[in-house]
C-alpha cells in the first residue's frame, strides 16, 4: 500500500543520510550525493554484512569516489568536474 511505500522511502533516506554522515560527506550538494547514491548504498549493504566484494572494479570505483569527493571538498575541482567524473553512463 501507499503508506508502506512512504515508510520504505523514509527508511532508505535515513540510511543514506547516516552513511553520508559517517563518511563525513553530509554537506555534499544533493547533485553529487545522487551521482554516488548507489555506491553509498553498496557501502551500507557491505557494512551490514549483506554481501562482501573484493572485485577490483568495485575497489577502483570506490577509490575514484573518494578521490573526487575529497577533491571537491578541498576545492581542488569544481562541482561540475566531480559530477562529470563520477557519473556512470548506464547501458
Structure commentary:
There is one protein chain. By secondary structure, the protein is mainly alpha-helical. It has helices at residues 2-23, 30-47, 56-73, 79-86. α1 crosses α2, α2 packs across α4 (79-86) and α3 (56-73) packs antiparallel against α4 (79-86).
Q: What is the tally of helical segments?
A: 4
Average per-residue pLDDT, rounded, comes to: 92
Helix content: over 70%
Largest sheet data: none
Rg, Cα atoms, Å: 14 Å
Total beta strand runs: 0
Q: How widely separated are the two ends?
A: 32 Å
Helix-strand makeup class: mainly alpha
Q: For this entry, what is the oligomeric state of its chains?
A: single chain
Question: SSE order in H/E notation?
Answer: HHHH
Spans where pLDDT lies below 50 across 5 or more residues: none
Shape: globular
Strand content: under 5%
Question: What topology does this entry show?
Answer:
Elements: H1 2-23, H2 30-47, H3 56-73, H4 79-86
Helix pairs in contact: 1-2, 2-4, 3-4
Task: Give me a quick take on this structure.
This protein has helices at residues 2-23, 30-47, 56-73, 79-86. The protein has 91 residues and is mostly helical.
Features:
91 residues, mainly alpha, 4 helices
